[in-house]
Amino acid sequence: MTWRKRIFDLFFASLLVIILGPIILWLVFYIWRKQGGPLFYVAERMKGPNEPFNLLKFRTMSVVEDDQGVSGAHKASRVTPLGAKLRAKRLDEFPQLWNILRGDLSFVGPRPPLREYVERFPDLYTEVLKSRPGVTGLATIRFHKHEDRLLKRCKTPKQTDDVYCRICVPRKARLDLIYQRHQSTCYDFDLVFQTIGNLFRRER
To answer: What is the spatial distance between Cα 202 and Cα 68, in angstroms, rounded to a whole number?
Structure first.
């Protein structure tokens, strides 16, 4: 990560913590009141081929002991009513401001992958993770809705894993590498504003 990108992340993450602090505290109280604890979903993700970190989100699913792989239709029944609302507006991702301040994430970059996929596709993720993972990015904007539709058709963990590995991983990686080649502060601003615009369109 370049020093310019790190300054960009620190400045805007700090600003958002100040602006959104009351909303985040209200969400903490509201989530605890509506669905109890745990409040946060903490999951291992990778910011480099051998660099794991704990990704933070507000919890949107019921808790199970052995939760593995990406989410397909086989996990849909575990999404809580409140969790569905948080996901629709991406409010569940507010805690990732902490990950940005720590340097685990950037605002813009590839979504941080699970360890199992980094180990299964080492050559691919060695290239993709030359960029610090982000909360949003080119692949998130261009492919997220299509990925969501594909995975919602998968009824078993095996189907989900097959579709994700065969279709989603390579397509998202191509977009992540396009971003990597063109990354700049102006491009990051553009992708952030596209993400915000998509959220408002989704709300309407």
So the answer is: 28
What is the pTM (predicted TM-score) of this model? 0.89
- Residue 75, CA distances (Å) to 20, 69, 70, 179 in order: 30, 10, 9, 30
> C-alpha distances in angstroms, 118 versus 5, 34, 72, 86, 169?
24, 36, 19, 28, 10
User: Who's near 30: CB < 8 A, 6+ residues apart?
Assistant: none
What was the pLDDT predicted at 73? 64
Q: What is the DSSP string of 64-131?
A: -S---S---GGGGGGB-HHHHHHHHTTGGGTTHHHHHHHTS-EEESPPPPPHHHHHHSHHHHHHHTTS
Mean pLDDT of all residues in 69-82: 77
Closest by Cα among 126, 135, 139, 141 to 194? 141
54-79 core/surface letters (b: 16 or more CB in 10 A; e: else)? ebbbbbbbeeeeeeeebbbebbeeee
Question: Residue 193 is encoded by which pair of tokens?
Answer: 């504003």
- Type of residue numbered 44: E
Closest CA to 79 of 114, 41, 42, 111: 41
Q: Hey, is 137 helix, strand or coil?
A: coil
Residue in this structure with the two tokens 């700090």, named with its chain if needed: 14
Residue 78 has pLDDT above 60, yes or no: yes
Given this model, what pLDDT does residue 196 score?
A: 86
